[in-house]
């Protein structure tokens, strides 16, 4: 590894989930419905049907382009990529392949990888339509045209990543951008995100800014998860280093491979000679239209607060650590929940502690999302307040938390039903403590000699109150009463 450096480029496909309809048809853009129920004739390429551009999809695509610091085109237009496959009944995909068609070209994005800021250059981001989805079984295949025509964003980077860690950190940053900007749920489990990865290696001492020094580009198609991207890159690096070491690297042709999850290897699909000529041309059924600068500005102003900005606020205004702030913004649903508790008056640090330890611990353990559990921001704030008022101890509050989820009741209801109320008023505790001390005056002598009798007294109070005495108040009163004597 020390002898080589790695060049990695990414193509990230992400479905735009936050539009009502598909990109060129009026069929619903939805993931929840019966297969083949969200289909219009144009999605199946029926003769005489014509595509109509979805303005909302273009708007979201332009928003992504702006966030990625890309240059927007003067005219919006589309192109045809010609090929036939059952998931593409029209015989072509409407896309934006050749410059200057894409909604964004030549951008860059800063991202954080293992605590370090890195920058990746973007070649382009373009809007296209997704194909239908197919599933293959041993004796038959199924096809679902609900996905045919779903708006899809394809982002193409330069080979600016030097490790699998960097590539995955970039993809995670992009996923957050899509979520926070309201462009897409970007959920890999729903198949909304798919990646192609280019990997090549070159001798370490050669100049990487000169393209002729780059190694043979190997493209790995259709990796469906970020962990798959990481594994595929690491496997491919090893494979290519081995080829260098055994002298076969120079014979290796430029090729397309696929990631095979089962064997954790990449498998050869086709070489350069089999590369497909898609015969691109401008889509004649969608008129070219001029992109108004005022519209671009309007979109720029409507970009929501993104993860990085939120993180900054958490650190600078709420005084959270970089570590905690990073955890809180990782998923938008978590960050939204957290911000809601702040709005409801929770102390930012206390709420963050709950979120990053107890709540995320529970969600991760059972692979749940925050919306799956019976906890609302209101309930968390209520729970925090019960501790702050001294009604329950912080130890008890953990128990209450799990009971809320289990019994689907509010914090106060749980506290009441468990008879958990903490005894936090001095008028109840002091006479009780005075009585205990009076009964053990001999121990005060021991105390003066240096024996630790303190815990004994605390224990007695807890025994009498069945653990419900407020610990810090109890300690305070015991100390005062001993000192008096
Ligand atoms: Mn594409």
| Associated small molecules | manganese (II) ion
In helices, the fraction of residues equals 25-40%
How far apart, in Å, are the first and last alpha carbons?
Answer: 74 Å
Main sheet overview: 8 strands, mixed
Tell me the structural class: alpha+beta
Compute the number of helices.
15
Q: SSE string, helix = H, strand = E?
A: EHEEEEEEEEHEEHEEEEHHHHHHHHHHHH
**Mean of residue pLDDT values:** 93
Morphology call? elongated
**Regions with pLDDT < 50 over 5+ consecutive residues?**
none
Strand content: 15-25%
- Total DSSP E strands: 15
Radius of gyration: 30 Å
Summarize this structure briefly.
The protein has about 475 residues and is α+β, with helices and mostly antiparallel strands. It has helices spanning about 55-65, 165-180, 225-245, 295-300, 305-315, 320-330, 330-345, 350-365, 375-390, 395-405, 410-415, 425-440, 440-450, 455-465, 470-485, and strands spanning about 5-15, 75, 80, 90-95, 105-115, 115-130, 135, 140-145, 150-155, 195-205, 220-225, 255-260, 265-270, 280, 290.
